[in-house]
Amino acid sequence: MTQQNNQHSIRQELPLVLLFVGLIWLVFVLDRFLPLEQLGLVPRDGGHLFGIITMPFLHGSFEHLMSNTVPLLVLLTLLAGSRANSRTIVLTIILLGGSLLWLFGRGAALHIGASGLVFGLAVFLIVSGLLERRILPLLIAVFVVFMYGSSLLSGILPWQPGVSWDGHLFGGLAGAVAAVFLARGQQLATRRTKS
Known about the structure:
Blueprint: H1 10-31, H2 51-54, H3 62-80, H4 86-104, H5 115-132, H6 135-154, H7 165-194
Helix pairs in contact: 1-3, 3-5, 4-5, 4-7, 5-6, 5-7
């Protein structure tokens, strides 16, 4: 995960960002005609293990969809402008966050929505900004804290009815893990280059 291997720009990755968010909207439209919400994640239910992958694409209402669309567009665009491998980071957050939720989340609750990914991306950008010790990632980290800091804190409070606070928590943890491994990979690559 070095800069040489992952050189990209927002302009290059913006079509993929729009395609990803567009796919979420397409699934939402299809869900009006098909019972797709049933494909969400239910912790420790083997029949809903696939929800690890499908959960970010499913939304219960237009308000739910909109509340995830704007932060997804902002955070995915910021990620596209970073030196991180955007696809690997998104996939890691979805798979790790979803797996943690499936293993440790509240049982008998159907989890849907991209908010776990949103939390993961926000935490990834904050932690990687602090670990990289470069001015631009640090400025991005400050921006994300300013824009989403209160949502990050309030989103993991467990007494909110109808909110997947545990999905938010595990998404955030997955983002932190991805950032630590990215920073460690960059440090190793820098040491190899210097030796």
